[in-house]
Amino acid sequence: MQHNGVYARTGPQSAHRSKPPPLCNILNDPELDRTSRPPHHCPRRPNPSHSPTTNLITASSTSCHLRPHTSTMPQTTQPYKTHTPRCQKPFPVYRQTHRAQKNNESPTPPTSQVLCGERETPLQVPPSYSHPNNLGDTSNTANTSPPTSLRILQWNILGASARRSLLEEVAHKDNIDIFLLQETLLSKHRPLHMRGFTPFLLPYVRGGCAILVRKHIPAAAISPLPDCSEAEIQGVDLTLAQGHLKIYNVYRSPTADLRLGELLSLSDTEEVFVGGDFNAHHFCLNSQSPTNPTGRHLATVLEETPTITLLNDVDSPTHLQGGRLDLSLVSSTLARHSTWEIHPTLTSDHHAILCTIPIAPLPRPPAPPPRWNTKRADWGLFTNTLDDLINSDPSQDLEEHAAQIISAFQAAAGTIYRANPTPEALRYLQSVIQHSIAEKNSIKEQKWLEWCQSLGAHSNLGSIWKKLKAVSSPPSARPPTHPNPRKEAENLAESFARRTSPTQLPNDIRRRQEELHQHRAEMIHISQNTPAESDRPFTTHELAQAKKSSTDTAPGLDGITYSMLSHAGPVAEKAFLDLLNHSWTLGRLPLQWKQL
Questions:
Q1: Is 559 helix (H, G, I), strand (E, B) or coil?
Q2: pTM value?
Q3: How far apart are CA 398 and CA 593, in angstroms?
Q4: Is 430 within a domain?
Q5: What digits encode the pLDDT tens for the residues 435-462?
Q6: Phi, psi (5° rounding) for residue 134?
Q7: Are residues 70 and 18 in the same domain?
Q8: Do 349 and 380 fall within a single domain?
C-alpha cells in the first residue's frame, strides 16, 4: 500500500517473507494503521480501480484516507507528477507536522514503532536533525515561504553533442542553474560548451559525465573524489549565498560495481546533493526487474545513513521501460522544501528529472545596458522630452546632481527605438546562423576533397609527406623567450634603478641639487596658491567644441551615447554644463562616472 510515500506489503505476496527488506524501514510511515489497508494492493501491482492520477494516502493519528494527487504534467502511459521527498527517516514526522499546521491542527507526537511488511520493527524516528553546517535549517520558519531555490536538472542524455541546443532552450525556459548529465559520450577532445555555463567534464570511459554550472555561481572541481568502486563519479563545490553545497554526479553502467558508503556518509559533515543513473533495482523502488546487488547495497546504505534523503517518487518511472534507475539524494536538512519531478519534455531512453533545492544561489550579475537603434530615433521628440524632464533646481550634492541628469537622459531615451530582439527576429537569426554553419562545413568538405584529389600516383613523395605531417601533427609550440621571464624582468628593473639612482651622480651635481631644493619647494607652493587661467568655469562654446560628432561606441552603465549628448536641447545643455562646472569646482568626478 502506498502511504504518503510509504510502502507496505499485504496479502499473499508478503506471507512468504520472513524478514523485511532494509529499505522498508525507511519507506514505511510510523502512523500507518494496518487495519485500514485496501485489500490486495501491492506497490508492484497497481490497483486498477484507482484513477490514472494515482491516489496518495494521507495519514492521521487514528486512520488513513485517500486523497487524489492532481498531476500538472501531461498524461502519458506513466503520468508525470510533482513530488516532495517521501522516503526518508526524519520526514514522516516533518510531513505530518507541516500538514497539521496547514490545517490548523495539532501535530500527532512521533511514534517509535514503524510498521514493516507484516511485522512491527522497533525503529526510533528522530523528530528533527541538526546539521553541523546547516544551510537548510528551516525549523523556525514553518509558517514562512521556502527560500530562493537552486534548480538542478539531471538526465541520462545518451549523447550530449546532438542535444546541446535543446539543453540551451531548457536552461532559458526553465531557469536551470545546474545540469547533471550521464552518458554524454564525450571525449576529452570533444568538450561540451554552453553559453552562460561553466562545464566540468568526465571523459568517456563507460558513458561519460558532465556537470554544467551557471557562470555566476562560483564552482570548483572536487578532488580527491570518494571511492565508488567501478562507477563513474565527478563532483563540484558550489559557493552559495549561505555557504557551500557539494554536487556529485554518478553513472553506473549495468555491469559495473557500485559502492556508496563513502559518498553518502559525506552528508554527516556537509551539505551534499547526489544525482545520477545508478541502475539499481529493488522492489521498494517499484522496480520491474528483479532486485540486483546494487539495489540491495543502496537499501542498506540508506538505512545506515539517516543524514541523506531519497527524493524520488517511486511511483514515477525514470526509464521508458518502467525502471527507476535515476535517483536523487540530498542532505536531510535540505529535503524539507525540496521537490522532485519528471521533466515533461526531455526524454532519451531516460526521462529528465528536475529537482529544486532550498538554497539561495548568489545573485546574478546585472543585465547589460540597453541598446538603442539611433538610426530610427525621433530626435526632435527626444530633445523636447529631455528639456521637459530637466530639473530647474539642481541639487547641491554632486552625486544627486549627476543622478538627476542621468535619470533625465534615460527617461528621454524611452522615445528612441530600443533594439530588443523579437521572437521572430531571434528565430530568423538562428536560421541564418545554421545556414552559415552549413555553408562553412560545405566549403570545408569541398576544400578537403580538392586536397585529397591533389595527391595521386605521380605526386612528389616529399610533398606528400610534408602534407601528411601538416595534417596529422599539431604545430609545435614555440619555446619561451626566457626560462624565467619574471625573474629576468625583476633583475632588469633593479639594474635600471641602481644606474639611475642619485648616488651615481658626481658630487658637485648632488651639492647643486641640495642648494636648489629649498627654492623649488617655494616655487611649488606659490604655483599651488596662484589661480591659473584654466581655473574658471567652462563655457557653452567650450562644451560645443568638446562634443564628438563621431559614431556611437559602447556606452557606460548609464547607457548614454554620443548621439544623445549631441541632440540635447539648450535646456539640457545648460544643465549638463552646470554639472561639469560643479564637478570642476569641487575637484572630483561623480562616482557614477567612475564605474565601468
A1: coil
A2: 0.51
A3: 12
A4: no
A5: 998 999 999 999 989 988 888 888 888 8
A6: -75, 110
A7: yes
A8: no
